[in-house]
Amino acid sequence: MRVVAACVCGSDLWPYRGVTPTHHAHRIGHEFVGVVEEVGPEVTTIAPGDFVIAPFYDCDMTCVNCKNGVSTSCLNGGWWGSDDKLGGFADGGQGQKVRVPHADGALVATPEYPSEELIPSLLTLSDVMGTGHHAAVSAGVTEGSTVVVVGDGAVGLCAVLAASRLGASRIIAMSRHESRQELARAFGATDIVATRGDEGVAAVKELLDGIGADCVLEAVGTKESMDQAIRSARPGGMVGYVGVPNGGPELPVRPLFNDNIGVNGGVAPVRNYVEELLQDVWSGAIDPGRVFDLELPLEEAAEAYAAMDERRAIKVLLRP
Amino acid sequence: MRVVAACVCGSDLWPYRGVTPTHHAHRIGHEFVGVVEEVGPEVTTIAPGDFVIAPFYDCDMTCVNCKNGVSTSCLNGGWWGSDDKLGGFADGGQGQKVRVPHADGALVATPEYPSEELIPSLLTLSDVMGTGHHAAVSAGVTEGSTVVVVGDGAVGLCAVLAASRLGASRIIAMSRHESRQELARAFGATDIVATRGDEGVAAVKELLDGIGADCVLEAVGTKESMDQAIRSARPGGMVGYVGVPNGGPELPVRPLFNDNIGVNGGVAPVRNYVEELLQDVWSGAIDPGRVFDLELPLEEAAEAYAAMDERRAIKVLLRP
C-alpha cells in the first residue's frame, strides 16, 4: 500500500516525550490511508488501485472477537511497525509504503478515488474519529443524552462530533484553548467549560440539573482526566473512556459503586466502525478532517511531533 | 410498619465480623416486609392494613436521581437504622416495627395480603433479588447472552435467576458448595465451575469459545472476586457488579482498557425494580425465596448471624 496521507497520534507523544521508554529504535505511525499497489494471492476484496483506509492495527475480521465488534482484540491481529502473526513485518504508517497483513479484513476501500478535500476526513477513520465514536458508543450516547467530553485533542473533538451525530441534546466540551473551543462548537458542542478539577465539576453540574451528565467521554488517559470524567457523571451515568491509560491509573471503585457510575471503553475497535462512518464522511454529513490544523511533508515529521508536543497544533497530517 | 419478616444480609456480616468497625452501638437490618399500621397525614398511596415491601433504603421516587432509575442516590433518601433527612429516625429492619420516611416513595404494596408461602420471595425484593437483577441489568444481560456469576451467596444465586429470567442462553455459576450448586441449577444455571483463580478462568473460557462471557455478574465484593469477574469476561464484555466493595479494591484499568471490558453497577436501586419483579413473584414465575434455608424467631438473631457467618446457612429469615 502506498501511503497518501498519514498523521501523528497523541499516543505517539508518549514515546516521543520519553514517558514510555523506547528500548530499541523502531518505525512508528499507525494512522494512514493510501492506494493499494499489489496484493497477495489470497486477497479477494481489495485490488490494486483501490483507495483504502487502514485502521490503527491489523485484524482479520473473521475471528470471534472481530465478529463480536472488538477487532482490536483480534486473535490474529497485530500492530503497525512490528512483526505480524503471519510471519511478516507490518511497517509503521509514517512512511512511504506499508505491507498490510489480513488486507481483506483490515482495509476498507472507498467507493471511488476520493477528492483531495475528503482525504483528511477519511484519514480520521483510521483512528481519531473512530475512537471518538467508540467513546460515545461505550458511554451509551443516544438521542437526547447529556454529554460531557473531557479532552480537547483530536479524539476529544471527534468525540464531540460523534455525540452530536448520535443525537445528544447537550454536549459540554471541557477546553481551555480558544481554537479548540471553536472547533468543538463547530462539531456540535452546546457549552464550553474552561475550568478543571473541583471548579470544572461544579460548572458541569450547574449546567446539568445539579447532578452531572448521562454520558462522559474521556479522551486523555491520565489520572486527573479520569477523575474529572467520573466526577462529571450523574448517578447511574456512564463514562466511555478511550484515552490510553498512561501510568496505569486505577479506577476508584467506591465512588463508582456508590453512585452506580459505569466505566466502559478501551482501545477503540475502529475497524468495526469504518463502513458506518465512511458513509457520513463520503456524503459530507460529517467533516472530522477539520481536526488537522497543520500539514507537512513526511520529511518534516520531526517538526510535526514538535508542533503537537508543544500544543501548537491539534493534529498534523503528513504527506509522503 | 409492623415487620412480618426480615432477614440478615451478607453485608451485615462485615460489621458482625469486625471487618468494618462499629463505632457506636446501633440498630441494624435493612430487608423487611410487613403490614402498615399507621400513616402520616401526607401519605397518599399507602394505607393501614397494606402488606408492603420496603427496599433496603428509603427514597422519595420523585427526585431526579430516582426518576433516572437510581433511587439509591435519592437526593432525600437515607438508610435504615439512622437519622433520616426529614428529621426523624428510621429504625433498623431487624425489629418489630419500623417508622418509614417517604412511605409513598419507598414502599410498594402487594395486590392483596400474600399467602404464607409467598412471603420469603416477596422479602427478597427488599434486596437480594433486586440486587441480583441489577447485576444482570448492569452487565446488559439479554436474550441469548452468555453469563458467568461470581459468588454463590443469596445475591449470586438471585443473579443466576435474574439472568435466566432475562433470557441468557448460558449461565455458568461459580460455586464450590453442593447445596448452592443445586439451587443455582434450579434457578437456571446451565454449568457449574467449582474452581477459582487461574483454574476457574480457564474452565470458564473452555466453556465459552475460549474467550469468556458476554456478561459477568459479580456478587461478592472482594479484590479476588472482582479479579475473577474481570478475567472471566470476553473482550468487549461487561462486568455487572453489586458486591459491596470491601476494603475498596481499585479496578485495574489496563486489562479493562486493553480488551474493552466494561464495569457497571453499584449499590442496587432495588426500589426501581420492585413493580417489575413483583409481577413475576406474584404469578409464581420466579421463586427467589428459595435462597432462605433457615428461619428463626427474631429473638434468635444472634444464631442467625452465626449461621451465616459460618456459612451453615445461605440466608436466614427472621420472624418477629
UniProtKB/TrEMBL annotation, chains A, B:
One term of GO molecular function: oxidoreductase activity
| Keywords noted in UniProt | Metal-binding, Oxidoreductase, Zinc
Q: Where do the Alcohol dehydrogenase-like N-terminal domain residues begin and end? A: 2-104
Q: Which residues form the Alcohol dehydrogenase-like C-terminal domain?
A: 154-279
What Pfam families is this protein classified in? ADH_N (PF08240), ADH_zinc_N (PF00107)
Q: Required cofactors, per record?
A: Zn(2+)
Matching entries from Gene3D superfamilies are given as: Medium-chain alcohol dehydrogenases, catalytic domain, NAD(P)-binding Rossmann-like Domain
Q: Transmembrane residues, as ranges?
A: none
Q: Does Oxidoreductase appear among the keywords?
A: yes
Matching CDD domains: FDH_like_ADH3 (cd08287)
Do you know which InterPro entries this protein is assigned to? ADH-like_C, ADH-like_N, ADH_Zn_CS, GroES-like_sf, NAD(P)-bd_dom_sf
Report if keyword Metal-binding is assigned: yes
Q: Which residues form a coiled coil?
A: none
Q: What family is reported?
A: Belongs to the zinc-containing alcohol dehydrogenase family.
**Protein name, entry field:** IMP dehydrogenase
The organism named in the record is Leifsonia poae
